[in-house]
Amino acid sequence: MQTGTGSAGRSGVTQAVDELDLGALGRALWRRIGLITGLTLLAGAIAFAAVNWVTPRYKSEARVLIETRENAFLRPEADRSLERGATVDQEAVTSQVQLILSRDLAIDVIRKLKLGDKPEFDPVLRGSSTIRTILSLVGLTRDPMSQTPEERVLKSYMDRLAAFQVEKSRVIAIEFESEDPELAARVVNAIADGFLVRQQGARQDESRNAAQFLSAEIEKLRRNVSDAEGKVEQYRNTTNLMIGTNNTTLSSQQLGDVNAQVASARALKADAESKARIIRDALRRGAATEISDVMNSEQLRRLSEQQMTLRAQLAEQSSTLLGQHPRIKELRAQISNLDRQIRSEAERIARAFENDAAGAAARLQSLTVTLDQLKKQAASSNVQDVKLRALEREAKSQRDLLESYLAKYREATARDSIGASSPEARIISRGIVSTTPSWPKKIPTVLIASLGMLTLAVGFILTGQLMNAPLPVPATSPVTAPPAPPTAVRSFESAAVKPASESLPPTESILEPPAVVPAVEPTQAETKPRVPPQPSERSSANSLVAKLRARLMKPAKPETADSAPAAASAALARAMAPPVATDDTPLAASVPPTEPAAAAPVAGVPAEAIEGLAQALATAGDSGRRIAVVGARRNMGTTLAAISLARALAKQGRAILIDLALESPNLSVIASDANTPGLSDLVQGSASFGQIITRDRYSRVHLITAGKADVGSQAILNSQRLSITLEALSRSYDYVVLDAGALPEIAPENFARLAPRAVLVADDIDGPATESARERLLSAGFPNVSVLASDPDGPESDTGGSQAAA
Asked: How far apart are the first and last CA of the chain?
């Protein structure tokens, strides 16, 4: 019977595989509607009983506003002129939340309210529970007796406490749950009060610590100031830089005094000289009495009065007496005498001023000499004065620092009071006794339990329906037995371990199994009774298998590039199709043996080795999830090995087989739809990722064929879309098997970056060609290489076995 199918049959299979029968799923749910309803009602009843059986908890809430509440009158003097921030940042509010949740505050509240004496917070006081004991024995919960009473109470306290920042505000909400609503209110209020007290205590401790620090520093500064001032006085005594009035040295003060005296002497000299000169000028003009300094003389004043009296008498006598009269002459003589006396007195005053000027000049000269001496002395003491000023500055800085610390110390001691420290928070809402339980939420719990059970029941029923659904089989494909394997030529020891020192390193696995093709597990549809085939169909199948054997054993034609893939594809399709089952005789026994050809035959696919390799890959972790199957040369059965390995892996998980033997692609012949686009179509952009995945017609393996687009093999292997596709497949499938083709026709470096493990299909595990192929794969970048020894002659040698070198 012919095993191929038409395009219409393949399209029907693909449609049946890709589409879900929603009607069948609905009917399955309707058939089990009673079970679903019963489970849902049972879950709801159990949840209802549970929420009414457990002890309810009541929640109480208090709210605290975080703000700056420092009194301006209690603020330190240095901070009064600074702008105080009116807002509090989010980090500060979060820090205050952590303070509320702190262990120290919790211990204070526990001790204050004596929560350790309440069975609600100490499980030991409630007595032992069978369920709790069993859970602690299996390690699911911790034994309460292994904890200290404080740890048990603190854990229960923390489980019931919640503190969080109200969104977009500086308000902190404090919530506490308890079986006693009054206790919940008292605890939450105690937490809020304790939080404020701790803030006040922290600020008080800050002031107290500052006072202690300043006190110690003040004592040090006092000693430093005393030492600095002592050095200043000692240096003054040593250098004779005594301090006079106005905080100046004696030398500087003397220099200033002498300088002032010099100026005074110079002024006196100039004044006396000017007065003497003025008087002599007045004497030459005959107007000595017009000078104020002359007229200030008492003698001159009397003489002037007498002269005026005589002149008055002369004028009076001249009216009656002539000029030669003795009386007139006497008066004139007296007036002349008075003029001489006035002149003489004026000259005496002028000489007195000249004498004063001479004395002032002499004194000026003496003071000038003294000033010069003091200047020289001051110049010599400037260096010493500089050092003195440095010592004075040091003493002044120490004294100023001491005064500053003294002022701060007085402020700190004044603030060392709980009433003087304002907390940066205030309670805006205190906890009250609640009458409504906060846990458990009865209605939501019952609804969630019922909906959850409903979802689980529906999910299990749908999953069972999908898992039990039969796999679609093409209408033209008969239900047959597995194909007969090729004949065997050589045999190996069963399960023998090849020594690592012979040819291969111990890091690689070499498997030489018997030549047996794995049989696909029958589906539910296949297990149904079927009508035995007629003799004509049996003879047709036997004839078909005989033709297949002859074609597989035919030597390859190296000169034709197109005929070889076509023939191999046809042979592969027939080899992978389930053979025709007879009523009494296996198919392998009904096929007459054929003689091997002179050329290299197509290798067989050993079942036991494939199963062993699949088990090894399943335990290899991530390195066994991507496998590249490579043949040592052409006609080694590489594609058959890849198909068998993928089918074996499909029994352990989701597996997909990708045809990367681009020089001779063959996987399309076992695809459920041979017209499905493949890798070349994906790389060219004519097909999407979801369109290139099809299924093996005889197993649960998914396939990706090479495709029909005219794209070079190197372009496909170097395409970024191929890498993305493999990465996506690795996340969706448990195993990704690559049919890489023959090693002489590929660049193994391209496959080493796609898969971490290679399976080398060879006919001789000890041969130099196999060793060379293995070394080439290792040098190409494969970290793990397994060698699968093929049996080119089939199972007629009944001692088939496998060798593995670990």
From this structure: 45
Quick check: 698 and 474 in contact, CB under 8 A? no
pLDDT over 50 at 438, yes or no: yes
Sign of CA dihedral 137, 139, 145, 146: positive
Six token digits for residue 208: 């107290």
What secondary structure letter does DSSP report for 334?
Answer: H
The two three-digit tokens of residue 104, written as one number: 């120290």
What kind and span of H or E run contains 546? helix 535-552
Residue 719 confidence (pLDDT):
85
Q: What does the alpha-carbon distance between residue 417 and residue 422 come to, in Å, rounded to a whole number?
A: 10
Model confidence pLDDT, tens digit, residues 171-219? 999 999 999 999 999 999 999 999 999 988 888 888 888 888 888 999 9
Q: Rounded to whole angstroms, how far apart are CA atoms 170 and 67?
A: 8
May I ask the CATH architecture of the domain 57-210+416-439?
2-Layer Sandwich (3.30)
Do residues 787 and 770 lie in contact, with contact meaning Cβ atoms separated by under 8 Å?
yes
- Residue identified by tokens 């590929």 is 746
Mean pLDDT is lowest, of 24-28, 545-549, 602-606, for 545-549
Q: How far is Cα of residue 604 from the mean position of the Cα atoms in its chain?
A: 57
Count of beta carbons in the 10 Å neighbourhood of residue 242: 12
The two tokens of residue 789 are 């020894």
38: phi then psi, degrees, rounded to nearest 5: -65, -45
Task: Enter the tokens of residue 617.
Answer: 């890959």
At a CB cut-off of 8 Å and minimum separation 6, what does 413 contact? 211
CA distance 249 to 375: 14
Provide the residue ranges of all domains of the chain, joining segments of one domain with +.
Answer: 7-45+440-468, 57-210+416-439, 247-380, 496-523+603-804
Q: What are the counts of helices (DSSP H) followed by strands (DSSP E) for the chain?
A: 25, 15
Cα gap 703→575, rounded to integer Å: 17
CA–CA separation, 227 and 225 (whole Å)? 5
Residue 80 CA to residue 196 CA, distance in Å, equals: 24
pLDDT at 461 over 50: yes
pLDDT at 564: 37
Helix (H) or strand (E) holding 787: strand 784-789
Which amino acid belongs to residue 596? P
The confidence score (pLDDT) of residue 656 equals 95
* Residue in this structure with the two tokens 């803030």, named with its chain if needed: 199
Instruction: Tell me which CATH code domain 496-523+603-804 carries.
Output: 3.40.50.300
- Which residue is it, tokens 């069972």? 464
Q: Judge contact between 668 and 659, C-beta under 8 A.
A: yes
Q: Which tokens go with 801?
A: 């076995």
Own/partner contacts of 289-292, CB < 8 Å, gap of 24 or more, are 289/342, 289/346, 291/346
Is the dihedral angle over the CA atoms 316, 318, 321, 327 positive or is it negative?
positive
Q: How far apart are CA 255 and CA 376, in angstroms?
A: 10
Amino acid at 214: L
The answer to whether 255 and 373 are in contact (CB under 8 A) is: no
Around 721, how many Cα atoms within 13 Å sit in the side-chain half-sphere? 15
